[in-house]
Design brief:
The structure holds 2 protein chains of 2 kinds.
Chain A: E1 5-7, H1 12-22, E2 26-29, H2 35-41, E3 48-51, E4 61-63, E5 70-73, H3 78-83, H4 85-90, H5 92-98, H6 104-107, H7 112-118, H8 126-131, E6 135-140, E7 143-148, E8 153-155, E9 158-159, E10 166-172, E11 179-186, E12 197-205, E13 212-220, E14 227-228, H9 230-236, H10 243-256, H11 267-292
Parallel strand pairs in A: 1-3, 2-3
Antiparallel strand pairs in A: 4-5, 5-10, 6-7, 6-10, 8-9, 11-12, 12-13, 13-14
Helix pairs in contact in A: 9-10, 10-11
Chain B: E1 2-9, E2 12-19, H1 24-31, E3 50-53, E4 56-59, E5 72-74, H2 88-95, H3 105-118, H4 124-131, H5 142-153
Parallel strand pairs in B: 1-5
Antiparallel strand pairs in B: 1-2, 3-4, 3-5
Classes of the chains: A alpha+beta, B alpha+beta.
């Protein structure tokens, strides 16, 4: 592996200053499960690796009981999310997604922030955060700014982050009552696999527990970046949710997806799986809502 | 670009001058001669290089040596007692045929140890989930899962 100097700032300001000094030759690193592979393979050739591991506060996973807002530090590992009972119980869509990223060895080290910033089309971590209307807090040389997670991605491997800017945390607004959410990573095998397609659905029902107050349908590997199926979401809003309606929403979502053929799967297969799993995940949401009542 | 780090390795206090870009796997195998930990893919896909850092199973091929400063590391070399008695997991793998060529075994056993240390009563599904990142090309996994379950049922004691 190419030699580099390892820098370990204690604060965000110090990290940004390091980046400022070395700009083009420096890279930020979270858990390193993607960055180290890239350096080993020669796809990335930094002279300085700025590790974010020692920065206080970036590892915090916290739910504010007063406001109901969930805050996930960028350096929170997938395993920390997976093992959190609060995540398992209140944010099942996050659990569904992070519990199948890579392997346990990768999840013990890899971070949610790294998963987002790596910006692969298949990023399992991004789909639930988009479905939950997550907001990313960025910090750079010019200070802080917020952007919705759905707007973070420009193209494969490219985010809106400016040079020197880093992701601090993701906040999730309090979920409305009667909300259910679910994600499936659909692939050929259960373990150590990138999804052929990733489907996340979130439904909020009115007090009658029938009418759809809000729908989120988010797809991974369905376009160059994680996407929301806005047409399908609009179709569901205000309708009484049943299996037929969810089947229709699945068709709409498949039609508005921009799936393509790749070495791992064909476009037609991906479309079929969107249809099938929008329905299944929708039904799972309803079940979660009924169980929580 | 060298740094002095200190860590616990299988309970022994170690200080080492390392290069910043060394992986933990490189430090263990190439510098310290601890070749029980294997390098398979080198990219975090196969789990052959699994070691335990601060109670968590990690791929040592993707873990920088510099990041173990102050940490406690367990490798396969630390499992058997000094008189040669195998750790219950090791004995189970031998007894139940969880080993064929043996290349994946150190990683399998370290992943299993991290799991059983955290959850001594892990069920079949939890064992499968914890071992999903360890690839074996010989056994078809059945005997490996049986080996871990047998070690769990013995409660960490050899018979």
């Amino acid at each position: 592996m190419k030699a580099f100097k390892y820098l370990s700032p204690k604060t965000i300001e110090e990290a940004i200053a390091f980046h400022g000094q070395h700009s083009e030759t420096a890279k930020y690193m979270g858990g390193g499960t993607d960055v180290i592979v890239k350096v080993k393979e020669g796809w990335m050739e930094p002279d300085f690796l700025i590790s974010l591991k020692k920065i206080k506060g970036l590892c915090e996973l916290h739910k504010n009981d007063a406001t109901g807002e969930l805050s996930i530090g960028a350096m929170v590992t997938h395993a920390t999310l997976e093992k959190s009972l609060m995540i398992q119980n209140e944010y099942p869509i996050i659990y569904d997604a992070v519990s199948n990223i890579g392997s346990l060895q990768v999840r013990n080290v890899g971070t949610i922030g790294g998963n987002l910033i790596n910006a692969v089309p298949s990023a399992d971590g991004a789909i639930p955060l988009i479905a939950l209307d997550g907001v990313a807090l960025l910090h750079g040389p010019d200070g802080e700014r917020s952007v919705e997670v759905k707007d973070l991605f420009i193209e494969p491997y490219k985010t809106i982050l400016k040079p020197g800017e880093l992701l601090k945390k993701i906040t999730i607004p309090p979920p409305a009552p009667h909300t259910g959410s679910a994600y499936i990573k659909f692939g050929r095998r259960a373990a150590m696999e990138l999804p052929l397609i990733g489907i996340g659905v979130l439904l909020t029902l009115e007090d009658d527990l029938k009418t759809c107050a809000k729908a989120r349908i988010c797809l991974g590997v369905a376009a160059p970046t994680p996407m929301r199926a806005f047409d399908a979401e609009k179709f569901l809003a205000g309708k009484e949710i049943n299996e037929e309606i969810l089947i229709e929403a699945g068709k709409i979502a498949a039609d508005e997806s921009k799936v393509r053929d790749s070495v791992r799967g064909k476009a037609w297969h991906r479309k079929e799986m969107i249809r099938v799993h929008v329905r299944r995940m929708g039904l799972k949401c309803i079940e979660i809502i009924k169980n929580n009542r | 670009m060298t740094t002095n780090i200190s860590f616990l390795l299988n309970g022994d206090k170690i200080s080492y001058e390392i290069k910043d870009h060394w992986t933990l796997l490189h430090l263990l195998r190439e510098e310290m001669g601890l070749i029980g930990t294997k390098e398979g893919c080198g990219n975090g896909e196969c789990g052959a290089c699994t070691v335990i850092v601060d109670k968590l199973a990690v791929n040592s091929c993707l873990y920088l040596a510099i990041d173990v400063d102050g940490a406690s590391i367990e490798t396969i070399e630390g499992l058997a007692s000094t008189n040669g008695t195998l750790h219950p997991l090791q004995q189970s793998f031998v007894d139940k045929g969880g080993i064929q060529c043996g290349f994946c075994s150190p990683g399998m056993i370290m992943s299993s140890k991290a799991l059983l240390d955290e959850n001594p009563r892990a069920n079949h599904e939890q064992i499968k989930h914890a071992l999903a990142g360890n690839i074996c090309r010989c056994t078809g996994y059945v005997q490996i899962l049986e080996s871990v379950e047998a070690a769990r049922d013995k409660g960490g004691q050899n018979e």
